[in-house]
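Design a sequence for this backbone.
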């Protein structure tokens, strides 16, 4: 069955019969049907246009949604990559700081070792100087003791001579020289 259009109704003609319907009333009713169908057709065309527009908008929004989804996925990936990169960079900075600290500690330990060696050399030099000074003092003490003993012997000899010279009339003068270093 075909659809009846307002144009079909407008051009439709009926056969004349003897006891038929009032022609003016039928024509008026047909005009009302035509008008109603035309309004419905216009309304339907407007709805079809609106549906088409809405379908276009839905398609556009779906494209936007897909684009936004892709953008969000890309942003998430980028954020993850940036985060991973930041973690790697932080690990690298920590490792560099650790290595620098180890080098600095090694440098300080080396400096401490050098200071300790220098301190030990200073202690050894001080001990050597003390030993040499002791030795020098012992040598001088020995010289002084030897000189003192010589002086005592000379004094004893002079006293003995003086006793013996009192018996003899000749006087002898003896000069002894002592050098101290």
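Sequence:
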């Amino acid at each position: 069955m075909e659809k009846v259009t307002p144009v079909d109704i407008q051009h439709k003609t009926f056969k004349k019969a003897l006891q038929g319907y009032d022609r003016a009333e039928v024509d008026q009713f047909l005009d009302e049907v035509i008008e109603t169908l035309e309004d419905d057709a216009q309304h339907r065309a407007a709805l079809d246009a609106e549906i088409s527009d809405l379908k276009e908008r839905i398609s556009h929004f779906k494209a936007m949604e897909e684009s936004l989804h892709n953008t969000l996925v890309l942003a998430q990936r980028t954020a993850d990559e940036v985060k991973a990169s930041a973690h790697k960079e932080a690990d690298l900075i920590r490792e560099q700081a650790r290595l620098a600290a180890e080098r600095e500690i090694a440098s300080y330990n080396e400096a401490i070792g050098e200071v300790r060696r220098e301190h030990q050399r200073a202690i050894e030099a001080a001990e050597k100087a003390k030993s040499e000074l002791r030795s020098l003092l012992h040598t001088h003490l020995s010289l002084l003791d030897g000189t003192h003993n010589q002086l005592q012997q000379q004094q004893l000899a002079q006293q003995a001579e003086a006793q013996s010279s009192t018996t003899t009339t000749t006087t002898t003068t003896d000069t002894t020289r002592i050098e101290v270093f």
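The chain is about 85% helix and 0% strand.
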